[in-house]
Design a protein that fits this description.
Structural class of chain B: alpha/beta
Largest sheet of chain A: 8 strands, mixed
CATH topology of the largest domain in chain A: Rossmann fold
CATH class of chain B: Alpha Beta
Largest interface: A-B, 59 and 61 residues
Oligomer: heterodimer
Strand content of chain B: 15-25%
Shape of chain A: globular
CATH architecture of chain B: Alpha-Beta Barrel
Number of helices of chain A: 18
Number of domains of chain B: 1
Strand content of chain A: 15-25%
Number of strands of chain B: 26
CATH architecture of the largest domain in chain A: 3-Layer(aba) Sandwich
CATH topology of chain B: TIM Barrel
Largest sheet of chain B: 9 strands, mixed
Distance between the termini of chain A: 48 Å
Radius of gyration of chain B: 22 Å
Distance between the termini of chain B: 41 Å
Chain lengths: ~400, ~550
């Protein structure tokens, strides 16, 4: 820090540098309606009106804000009878759904670093997506010197595969089949011949053998879709009978795990919840933000810390453009520019303290190296909630 | 101010056993007298007790939240609507945070201790407790499988300072040991320890050394609550010997045993368990420095939620259903299995019977207190039924007649135990006793200066009905519940211990943190005021007179 600004970042990766740059830049005006700067109170009032008038408001984003703001977002969603989806981009929500259905065996990052002899990166490319992960887990080549093994299973030779001891090529469309085959191999169940012929069976058999024999094994993954995740969790569960094996999904957003956790403690469910009937209801798939938007269901939206227009499938983005939208985000995003009401907030970890849950669930405190006058997401959400007549939505 | 007039008061800590008198409260405390014009509740014909105190429950933190995520079916079947004064939520055996606070209050409980928080996850527990309204709450910090502490124990290091540091760093209230050494061994190829003298592989400590060292430190610090021990070998036939050995090891030091029922089995490992409740009840009676809560099993759904991960791996094989394992670096593990206890099942019926035996055979209700180890043995919502089992011999015998006959044949319950708990004794095992064991002097009693946490029940022959629905619940002097309905839902306090440590411990811990954690020592302690307030500090009496 120098002269009230960040002079140099230490121990960040390229993704981290970008993250700080986006949030430490001079922010746009704190509150806008249709692009025009307005008083904060007016923007709050307008937001409350939009949410109260809506028949089915949608609250989503959440994975890039702190737990305190997520907590306020759930409270606001409840007050207006909204649907709230913590899933963020992609199909991160599937993690929660599978965990609900069969459970999982998992561990914190320190355990992976200190105990895992064998780490399988299943359709995960942390060298690109989480550049500091391998060195911090001592899984880069130097760190593995003691005989630890890194195996990559993916559709092509990724950057992580280049770092690995072994690369097993499995096309993405055979993800489920490959996981199911390893599962069968682990359990000594005969494999279907046609299926086996489409898979690199020798390599998978060797992998199954290594997993069975390891003292502590870990699978870090970014499997896509419910069925593939289910297969992966089922495999780890089977392995748990013969070895100590854990799995950890690598998350895209910094506090995706926190969003899931906060929603779960307040409602009982880790994935999208509807408060339309005055109490939490969750149905896998039914309340996903992207799905609802594609079906044209919500008539207003509150987007928190998420550039939705850039990440949603086109039909969902089209509907989002058509409905009154409130955006709460420290960054000047495309979604904020298109919003009816936009709040530019103080970013957690830069201008505001808060808590986030790492992707392994460990809660960590964010510091505020550049504190300022501007309020955070939590204060904006609480201010809107304070303007909602009580009992609304019940 | 408020006068609770003409009730039959049960305040065992002050020797009051059903006398008709007034309880006056003002400014959150019990006071001697109030002016005659003070507002009053007419409690004529009603029973007045201090607010309930739960000494061992699991209501917040990463393990409980993982259990919530695992039980959507239960949540669907049990919903709480948003009202003008309450948040919405879901119930089941692992309710959402708001529902947990409301339902404890509706049951007449005003203080709840979460019995197992991994210190690394204290922020998570604190955030959930902040969203658990009405009740005052505290949490116990898991220290039985902590690698830095193991190193200090092995090397004769400053364990006591480290224990105090951990309590201060987390906002915790007391110290919990769960299967000391065994959870660490679980991370070594799914193994466990089976005796107090098994070495924890490569770490140079045994369960016995951990027990001795930590219990000694807790006594040296003069913490208000003794070391709270979940013994090794939970659920294993023949484990009563481990339990006795644990108590022998801790002789001369204060100790509280968690969910004793799960540790009171005779027989041989792998075979059908028997009851050793009479032996353990007798042993506890003879050792005033030791206490226990029951961990009563009640028939119906439960969710096994424990730091004792190896136990849930066994249960997973029993149920074939959902299972969570979560290894937490340097500190602990976590296992979760949704479970159901069935009347006709031999083991389940025996567990149910052993819990009742322990309660009915115990001669000192101050030291053998009520718990279901919520949500492990049953939900806290089953306390009223358990109270009826203790107070109503006829009801009890009728229930005994419904369960697995062979199992009951292994217990003394078959002899038709005559004992019926009195209201005064119920007040001891649900309030006064737990408060005293926790060292919460302002709780569990209605003497002048005590917290104005009061529960008023309408007398009813059916004790389950009576205790299910208090007529009034007063928390901090405010009427929170009236006729089974919440009137307001204020936040409760965090109760944390004030145990001071030598700052030099930081230099000892620094290299241990670098070795074992993925977070830095400097970032570990919780300093965020919004997570810690409102707080009440309960002082430890270091090097005090307890000796």
């Amino acid at each position: 820090m120098a002269a009230g600004a960040i002079e140099r970042l230490i121990r960040t990766c390229t993704i981290g540098d970008e993250w700080f740059a986006e949030r430490a830049a001079d922010a746009p005006s704190a509150a806008r309606i249709d692009g025009r700067e307005v008083d904060f109170a007016d923007a709050v009032e307008a937001s409350a009106a939009i949410l109260c008038e809506a028949r089915l408001p949608l609250v989503f984003g959440l994975g890039q804000t702190d737990c305190e703001s997520q907590r306020a977002a759930v409270a606001l969603a409840e007050a207006v009878g909204a649907v709230i989806d913590p899933a963020g981009p992609g199909d991160e929500g599937a993690a929660g759904a599978v965990a609900q259905d069969i459970g999982l065996s998992t561990a914190t990052l320190g355990e992976l670093r200190d105990r895992a002899e064998l780490v399988v990166a299943w359709r995960a490319d942390p060298v690109v997506s989480h550049p500091r992960l391998l060195p911090r887990l001592r899984l880069d080549r130097a760190g593995r010197a003691g005989g630890r093994r890194l195996v990559v299973v993916d559709g092509g030779r990724t950057a992580t595969a280049e770092e690995a001891d072994e690369f097993i090529e499995v096309p993405p469309e055979l993800d489920f089949e490959a996981l199911w085959a390893v599962r069968a191999l682990v359990r000594d169940v005969p494999l279907d011949g046609d299926l086996a012929a489409r898979l690199p069976l020798d390599a998978l058999e060797q992998l199954a053998g290594r997993l069975r024999a390891c003292g502590y094994g870990a699978v870090v993954h970014r499997t896509a879709g419910y069925a593939n995740r289910l297969a992966l969790h089922a495999l780890v569960r089977d392995l748990a009978r013969v070895a100590h094996v854990v799995a950890l999904p690598l998350r895209q957003e910094g506090n995706a795990r926190g969003a899931e956790d906060v929603l779960a403690w307040q409602t009982g469910y880790p994935s999208a919840v509807s408060f339309a009937r005055g109490h939490p209801r969750a149905r896998a798939g039914e309340f996903s933000a992207a799905g609802m938007l594609e079906r044209g269901e919500p008539d207003a939206a509150l987007v928190i810390g998420f550039d939705a227009l850039r990440h949603l499938p086109p039909p969902a983005a089209d509907h989002l453009r058509r409905i009154p939208t409130i955006v709460v985000d420290p960054r000047p995003t495309e979604t904020a520019a298109a919003a009816r009401v936009a709040f530019a907030t103080a970013a957690g970890g830069v201008r505001r303290e808060g808590t986030v849950h790492r992707m392994d669930g460990v809660p960590v405190a964010l510091k505020a190296p550049l504190p300022g006058e501007r309020v955070g997401d939590e204060e904006v959400l609480a201010a809107i909630a304070a303007r909602i007549p009580s009992g609304e939505g019940s | 101010m408020l006068r609770i007039a003409h009730g039959r008061v049960f305040d065992p800590a002050n020797g009051v056993d059903g006398e008709v008198r007034d309880v006056c409260v003002d400014d959150g405390k019990v006071v001697e007298e109030l002016p005659s014009h003070a507002p009053r509740i007419d409690a004529s014909g009603m029973v007045v007790m201090p607010g309930g105190v739960d000494i061992h429950s699991h209501i917040a933190g990463p393990a409980v939240n993982a259990a919530r995520k695992l039980t959507p079916e239960e949540h669907r079947a049990d919903v709480l609507d948003r009202t003008a004064i309450t948040r919405s939520g879901t119930g089941g055996t692992v309710p959402s945070t708001f529902a947990t606070g409301y339902r404890y209050a509706l049951l007449g409980y005003t203080t709840v201790v979460d019995a197992a928080t991994p210190p690394l996850a204290a922020r998570h527990t604190l955030a959930e407790l902040r969203d658990t309204p009405i009740v005052d709450k505290a949490f116990l910090v898991l220290m039985g499988n902590n690698l830095p502490l193991f190193e200090l124990i092995r090397g004769g290091g400053p364990v006591t300072e480290a224990v105090a540091w951990w309590l201060e760093a987390t906002g915790g209230y007391g110290v919990k040991l769960v299967n000391p050494g065994g959870v660490e061994m679980w991370k070594h190829g799914n193994r466990n320890v089976t005796s107090l003298d098994d070495e924890v592989e490569g770490l140079g400590v045994t369960p016995r050394r951990v027990l001795e060292a930590i219990a000694t430190s807790v006594d040296e610090l003069g913490l208000p609550h003794p070391v709270h021990v979940h013994c090794n070998n939970l659920g294993v036939a023949g484990n009563w010997r481990t339990t006795l050995e644990t108590l022998d090891t801790l002789q001369g030091r204060r100790a509280h045993l968690a969910h004793l029922q799960f540790h009171a089995y005779g027989g041989t490992p792998g075979k059908r368990p028997r009851s050793k409740a009479p032996e353990l009840a007798e042993h506890l009676d003879a050792h005033p420095e030791h206490s226990a809560d029951i961990g009563q099993v009640m028939f119906g759904p439960a969710t096994t939620t424990t730091a004792d991960a190896p136990v849930t791996a066994l249960l997973r094989e029993v149920t074939g259903g959902k299972w969570v394992n979560a290894d937490l670096e340097a500190e602990t593990g976590c296992g979760i299995v949704p479970f159901a206890y069935r009347e006709r099942n031999y083991v389940h019926a025996l567990q149910w019977g052993i819990g009742l035996e322990l309660l009915l055979l115990s001669r000192d209700p101050w030291r053998v207190v009520l718990s279901t180890d919520h949500p492990n043995g049953a939900s806290f919502l089953s306390y009223p039924r358990l109270i009826r089992l203790l107070m109503d011999r006829e009801f009890r015998n009728e229930q005994i007649g419904r369960v697995n006959r062979k199992a009951i044949g292994r217990t003394v319950l078959k002899d038709d135990l005559e004992r019926e708990y009195t209201l005064g004794e119920i007040a001891v095992i649900t309030r006064a006793g737990p408060a005293r064991l926790l060292g919460l002097g302002d709780k569990g009693q209605l003497g002048v200066g005590a917290d104005a946490d009061v529960t008023v029940y309408v007398e009813h022959e059916d004790r389950e009905q009576m205790f299910s629905r208090p007529r009034y619940v007063i928390k901090g002097g405010r009427v929170i519940v009236e006729d089974g309905e919440l009137r307001e839902a204020p936040a409760g306090d965090l109760l944390r211990v004030a145990a001071f440590h030598d700052e030099a411990i930081g230099r000892t811990l620094q290299p241990l943190f670098e070795e074992h954690y993925s977070v830095q020592l400097a970032n570990y302690p919780v300093r965020e005021q919004w997570l810690l307030e409102p707080t009440r500090r309960i002082p430890a009496r270091r090097n005090g007179s307890r000796g």
